[in-house]
Amino acid sequence: MDTDKPVLLVFSDWYFPGYKAGGPIQSCVNLVRFLSDQYKFYVICSDRDLGETAPYPSVQLNEWNTGEAGELVWYAPNAQLTARFIREMLKKLRPQTVYFNSMFSVRLTLLPLYVLSQLQAKPLIVLAPRGMLQAGALQLKATKKKIFLQAFRWLGWHKFIRFQATDQQELKDITTHFPGAMVVLAENIPHRLQQQFPAAPKEPGVLKLVFISRIHPKKNLHFLLELLAGWTNPATLQLGIYGDADEPSYVNQCKALADKLPANQEVKFHGPINNKEVFSVLSGYHAFVLPTLGENFGHAIFEALESGKPVLISNRTPWQQLAEQKAGWDIPLDQKDRYWNALDQLAAMDQAGYIEWSDAARQLASSYISNAGFREKYSTLFS
Predict the structure, then answer these.
(1) pLDDT tens, 52-101?
(2) Rounded to 5 degrees, what are φ and ψ at 95?
(3) Does 370 score more than 90 pLDDT?
(4) Could you tell me if 290 and 356 are in contact, meaning their C-beta atoms sit under 8 angstroms apart?
(5) What confidence tens digit (pLDDT) does each residue in 214-251 have?
(6) Mean pLDDT along residues 37-57
(7) Which end of the chain has fewer beta carbons closer than 10 Å to its terminal beta carbon, N or C?
(8) Angle 209-275-197 (CA atoms, 0-180°, nearest 5)?
């Protein structure tokens, strides 16, 4: 290819303008934008968003589209994603590095890895599990994932792959499932806030919570609604839920729980939003809540912190010891009383107290960026 930069080919189930799959899309988009000055990126992805039956209306299919950072993106229908197509792309692009943005994708991880495994001279192959090896994530569709991992090991693919771990827990998860594998720790590159929003008005006895994530069992929305049902505080509470409903039966379960909440608690399901809307939506709420079964980073958590929103989350993310920093709470899921105490504390805050926690949340996000060392770590990952 005619380029003075190393060619880095990305395989990802979804890519911009997709947004319904949440964090994995944003992780990939942020990586491409951050490193576009160092690499020439080519991205091969599905031609439609998660759960959609029609392709993106704003892109050209079966040809290269130029992305916002100069990357070239090929939006492929499923029927096009064949071994022959992948071989042709590898031959034409001659990438120095191939990057996989998923662990369990059949067409955009498993099939390309099969093709690459046949090559005598392989490019550097990097795979980001994106939290899919966490215990909580493996509980969902457990049998299928167990078979996949057994086949992966049996074929020996982990021996020629470099894995990206985005936190210490993911590093442990990778080495547990693939002993002896090469792993590089390089944290997720977050989406940054381009403008500051003032702290939301806060008076004691009023609390506005926001949940921004896929409405999926892993994100544990039903736990949050059951938690609210047991919360006896008389404060006026509003909960805004933003996210793609990719499992209708689970959404119906959550809506049924919401309908049973006491009169002082109001829940609204707003549907999915694209990433460009997240910060403006966050500005209208007091705190972000996500009792997830597991996140290897949690882009929405970071975005909430950068927006000055204290977060109420499970202890199954890299964001730890939040209460000590007055940036929120990370609480085990079997300790509901601590969740209720955190809600009591949030509900009782006045404007001065809330601004203190809001500023602390912003400071935590800022410190994360300052200390991350992204350039050095990604240089190691792709060297």
Answers:
(1) 899 999 999 999 999 989 999 999 999 999 999 999 999 999 999 999 99
(2) -70, 145
(3) no
(4) no
(5) 899 999 999 999 999 999 999 999 999 999 887 889 99
(6) 94
(7) C
(8) 55
Site of tokens 């940036």: 327
Letter for the amino acid at 321? Q
Per the prediction, the chain carries an average pLDDT of 91
- Burial label, 268 (beta-carbon count in 10 A; 0-12, 13-18, 19+): exposed
340 burial type by CB count under 10 A (0-12 exposed, 13-18 middle, 19+ buried): middle
* Alpha-carbon distance values, 264 to 215, 229, 233, 307 (Å): 23, 11, 9, 26
Q: Beta strand 64-66 with 72-76: parallel, antiparallel or unpaired?
A: antiparallel
CA distance 7 to 124: 11
pLDDT band at 137 (very low <50, low <70, confident <90, very high): confident
| Full set of structural domains in the chain with CATH | 7-186 (3.40.50.11930), 206-369 (3.40.50.2000)
